[in-house]
Amino acid sequence: MDFNPLKCGTTVLPSRKQVIRAARAESKGVSLGFRAPDFELPEPLTGKLWKLEDFEAYPALLVMFICNHCPFVKHLKKDIVKLSNFYMKASAFKGLAVIAISSNSVTTHPQDGPDYMAEDARLFKYPFPYLYDESQDVARNFGAVCTPEFFLFKKDGRRPFELVYHGQFDDSRPSGNVPITGRDLSLAIDSVLSGQPVNSIQKPSVGCSIKWNPQ
């Protein structure tokens, strides 16, 4: 069940490079095999509270740390929606469960607050819950450091979800000319849903640093 970005409309970037003014960070420090921590977070769009246990029936869970303002997230946003729609609606499997979480401080970045999150989810027609981590405890428990950051877990019997992929969406960046394909993440998802091992050689995701609350 390969995700074919060409059929979904691969995003081809303009030739002129963009100047990105953002604190860059790379996903790191979380070992494969890490168990997904429990959480309970609100979805600003609907007001619903979501927990890890809500996804126990699924064979795989993709947790994405994103936000509204980051140029690295904006660069991939439409293609994240395409990829999520493809796997969440897969008929050959129960489907992939997907959630997105914003943990940025609204003190320093009010544009990432819950009201704006709801607007973003509505505008881009997110097929997944977009959750608000006001305390930033969930980001810390996951070991998240940047946006976007991708955590792909597989179900392991009755045990909590096990981390099998913690890497990039693909090689595309907002400051370059590489087309967006979602190749790295989609290959990992295909492996999980087909019962195959995920390649342990994984390139870290690159993005904006999570904006922690001022101390």
Automatic annotation (TrEMBL):
Gene3D superfamilies: Glutaredoxin
Domain Thioredoxin per the UniProt entry, residue ranges: 30-194
GO molecular function ontology, one term from the record: antioxidant activity
SUPFAM superfamilies according to UniProt: Thioredoxin-like (SSF52833)
Cited InterPro entries: AhpC/TSA, PRX-like1, Thioredoxin-like_sf, Thioredoxin_domain
Protein name: Thioredoxin domain-containing protein
PANTHER family in the record: OS07G0260300 PROTEIN, THIOREDOXIN-DEPENDENT PEROXIREDOXIN
The organism's taxonomic lineage, starting at the top: Eukaryota, Viridiplantae, Streptophyta, Embryophyta, Tracheophyta
